[in-house]
Amino acid sequence: LKPYRARAVYEPRAVLEEFGTHIPDDVEIVVSDSTAMVRYLVLPMRPAGTEGLSEEELSALVTRDAMIGVIPVEYQKRV
After folding, report:
1. CA–CA distances in Å: residue 50 to residues 25, 31, 60
2. Looking at the whole model, is its pTM more than 0.70?
Protein backbone atom coordinates (compact mmCIF):
# COMPACT_ATOMS: atom_id res chain seq x y z
CA LEU A 1 0.00 0.00 0.00
CA LYS A 2 1.06 3.52 -0.62
CA PRO A 3 2.01 5.29 2.62
CA TYR A 4 -0.80 7.87 2.35
CA ARG A 5 -3.43 5.09 2.29
CA ALA A 6 -2.34 3.76 5.67
CA ARG A 7 -2.12 7.30 7.09
CA ALA A 8 -5.58 8.11 5.74
CA VAL A 9 -7.05 5.69 8.27
CA TYR A 10 -5.64 7.42 11.35
CA GLU A 11 -5.18 11.01 10.13
CA PRO A 12 -7.56 11.53 7.21
CA ARG A 13 -7.85 15.29 7.59
CA ALA A 14 -4.06 15.72 7.30
CA VAL A 15 -3.82 13.45 4.25
CA LEU A 16 -6.66 15.28 2.49
CA GLU A 17 -4.98 18.61 3.29
CA GLU A 18 -1.80 17.34 1.59
CA PHE A 19 -3.86 16.71 -1.55
CA GLY A 20 -5.16 20.29 -1.39
CA THR A 21 -8.54 19.54 0.17
CA HIS A 22 -9.43 21.41 3.37
CA ILE A 23 -12.27 19.88 5.35
CA PRO A 24 -13.64 22.25 8.02
CA ASP A 25 -13.35 21.09 11.62
CA ASP A 26 -17.15 20.99 11.97
CA VAL A 27 -17.40 18.32 9.22
CA GLU A 28 -17.14 14.74 10.47
CA ILE A 29 -14.80 12.45 8.54
CA VAL A 30 -15.52 8.72 8.70
CA VAL A 31 -12.93 6.32 7.29
CA SER A 32 -14.09 2.88 6.18
CA ASP A 33 -11.82 0.45 4.42
CA SER A 34 -13.29 -1.63 1.62
CA THR A 35 -12.58 -5.27 0.82
CA ALA A 36 -13.62 -7.67 -1.91
CA MET A 37 -16.72 -8.41 0.17
CA VAL A 38 -17.61 -4.86 1.26
CA ARG A 39 -17.88 -1.68 -0.80
CA TYR A 40 -18.79 1.81 0.36
CA LEU A 41 -20.47 4.60 -1.52
CA VAL A 42 -19.56 8.21 -0.84
CA LEU A 43 -22.34 10.68 -1.50
CA PRO A 44 -21.14 14.27 -1.85
CA MET A 45 -22.96 16.88 0.19
CA ARG A 46 -25.45 18.91 -1.82
CA PRO A 47 -23.98 22.37 -2.51
CA ALA A 48 -25.83 25.38 -1.15
CA GLY A 49 -28.02 27.10 -3.72
CA THR A 50 -28.81 23.99 -5.76
CA GLU A 51 -32.28 23.29 -4.37
CA GLY A 52 -33.98 24.20 -7.65
CA LEU A 53 -31.65 22.25 -9.95
CA SER A 54 -32.83 19.21 -11.87
CA GLU A 55 -31.21 15.79 -11.48
CA GLU A 56 -29.40 16.35 -14.78
CA GLU A 57 -28.05 19.73 -13.63
CA LEU A 58 -26.93 18.25 -10.30
CA SER A 59 -25.19 15.29 -11.93
CA ALA A 60 -23.19 17.68 -14.11
CA LEU A 61 -21.62 19.11 -10.94
CA VAL A 62 -20.34 15.78 -9.63
CA THR A 63 -16.73 14.93 -10.41
CA ARG A 64 -14.67 11.80 -9.77
CA ASP A 65 -12.95 13.49 -6.82
CA ALA A 66 -16.30 14.43 -5.30
CA MET A 67 -17.50 10.84 -5.60
CA ILE A 68 -14.48 9.43 -3.81
CA GLY A 69 -14.88 12.05 -1.11
CA VAL A 70 -11.72 14.11 -1.49
CA ILE A 71 -13.30 17.40 -2.52
CA PRO A 72 -16.68 19.02 -1.96
CA VAL A 73 -18.93 19.71 -4.95
CA GLU A 74 -18.75 23.37 -5.91
CA TYR A 75 -21.63 25.36 -7.39
CA GLN A 76 -21.65 28.93 -8.62
CA LYS A 77 -25.04 30.22 -9.68
CA ARG A 78 -25.05 31.85 -13.08
CA VAL A 79 -26.77 35.21 -13.07
Report:
1. 23, 27, 12
2. no
